[in-house]
Amino acid sequence: MMRKLWILFAQATTIGLAVFFVLSTLKPGLLPAKAPNGVITLHESVQPHPTRSGEPPAAGFRAAAQKVMPTVVNVFTSTEIKKSTHPLMDDPRFRFFFGDELDNSQQHGSNLGSGVIISQNGYILTNSHVVEAADQIEVALADGRKTRARIIGSDPESDLAVIKIDLPGIIPAITFGHPDQAQVGDIVLAIGNPFGVGQTVTMGIVSAVKRNHLGLNTFENFIQTDAAINPGNSGGALVDINGNLIGINSAIYSPNGGSLGIGFAIPVSTAKKIMEQIIQNGSVTRGWIGVAVQELTPELAKPDNIQGILISEVVRGGPAEKGGVRSGDILTMVDNIQLQSDSSSMLETIASLPPGKVVMLKLLRNQRKVVVQVKVGKRPIPKNLE
């Protein structure tokens, strides 16, 4: 009896070893593997699982890039530049031999930038400096189509402009991200046409938000990023990893014109407000009270740690003067809005007010509280922008 049991055990063991040998040689993936920590896991296929279309899922940020790239365009502009005629062109003998070949009294300069299609109607958001003074604008889409564009409106103080194209067929449009979506450390993609080499995607992170006092624009609230932004990227898209627009690339910090990892984009919250006004009215209207301001020094803020802004000058005949504001006043509140000791925030607060509205200004004058009423005026165009 024991002999038969031993024979059966030996045969079963032999068959088991044979099966294990065959599987380990021909089908090792069917056997369990022991992880270094002693946990038994199953081998997984090195091939990605196919999608419904039979294609493997997108790797990295491919999906975001493919979503955005059709909506980012190249913007080419030309400007007629008048040039003084060479003095020798006034000599009849010189003109007899050389004719008018050297008479280049008019030349054409060119500019190159990027833009973002924001509507299937063909509206494109770009930088004001890309299209300023342009006699002709041409737009090239990612699918190879090219067409002329016309300027709907421009706002040099925020460096934003809207242009429009008219094309048959489908015009792709970008998806806007949440206005306050960008946070320090977020991964972002910058898409544009740097140096005219063609559409390019670069990656980085949000390095900082609400950057101002850079001297680039009158109204500044930049997103700072280390995604490579170079000349030609201006007006292009800064997007999140889902392909949603969070900013319009505008400027770089660079002594030689190349990317040093410090780029600035206008946040979508600002861009959307400007865009809507330009499309509706052709221009941007801002509030103005006619004062020059400067930030409070620690000495002026003492002893009560005053929060506000110092009125350094009052425009003669302006809304503030008519309302009773004086030079040397400290403006602390506009209606119920508490001002910080930051000239940029004060400028934004006043600019957001509709012209014609009467507001209450709370002031400190010689350490006494004063309240005046001011009728908001329309912000004039700076003389250097007219």
From TrEMBL:
It comes from the Bacteria. The keyword RNA-binding does not apply. Belongs to the peptidase S1C family. Keywords: Hydrolase, Protease, Serine protease. PANTHER family: PEPTIDASE S12 (PTHR43343), PROTEASE DO-LIKE 8, CHLOROPLASTIC (PTHR43343:SF3). GO terms for molecular function: serine-type endopeptidase activity. The keyword Hydrolase applies. GO terms for biological process: proteolysis. This is Outer membrane stress sensor protease DegS. Residues 278-341 form the PDZ domain. It comes from Candidatus Nitrotoga fabula. Pfam families: PDZ_2, Trypsin_2.
